[in-house]
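Schema walk-through. Below, the input block comes first and the output block second. Nothing else is stored per chain. Lengths vary across the set, and this one has 222 residues.
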Amino acid sequence: MDNVTIAIDGPSGSGKSTVGKAVARRLGYLYIDSGAVYRAVGRKALDANVSLEDAELVARLAREADIRLEGDPDHLRVLLDGRDVSAQIRLPDASHASSVVATIRAVREAVVDKLRRMASAGGVVMDGRDIGTKVFPDAQVKVYLDASLEIRALRRCEEELERGREVTIAQILIELEERDRRDRERAATPLVKASDAIIIDTSDLALERVIERVLEIARSRS
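--- output ---
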């Protein structure tokens, strides 16, 4: 399975990162979390006190930012201009900022360019919201993970509580509904399933079964 590109798309909380990391680990592939790159751009804008509504300036920051992902799937470090921001990009303000800057077409173009360069050698698993439609439209393997809003909110709530953030299911539901709306309504590469992607509804599937299903699909395309 040398140099196969596996694109995993889907809404927030559908299991993309967890599944993507596991698949990359088992195949010995490079894992790239595209969301972390958008979060890094959002973090850079916040740290520079730049208005998230200033599309031109935010896009310039995105183009200039040196964003690198290092480490294995289980210990991924995000470096922004040489600084480790792995923890800072997971804070609530960076999460919100990433969903805003990701609606800016010029920011998405800048990030797509960075992602393609990161994955230029092949043998990669990349997850996001437009990997199979925009970043790698010719990927050999395209998977679209989905789950009910309630299940996704429960998963995200558990993740946030583990990080020490005091949240409720009701709060996360509101945040996810807003994130879904932004993802699907943005003019620049909205969240849609690639026509040749295989849908996997993870609502009632055990994690191991989802991982095995993606691996089965990958092996059938290699």
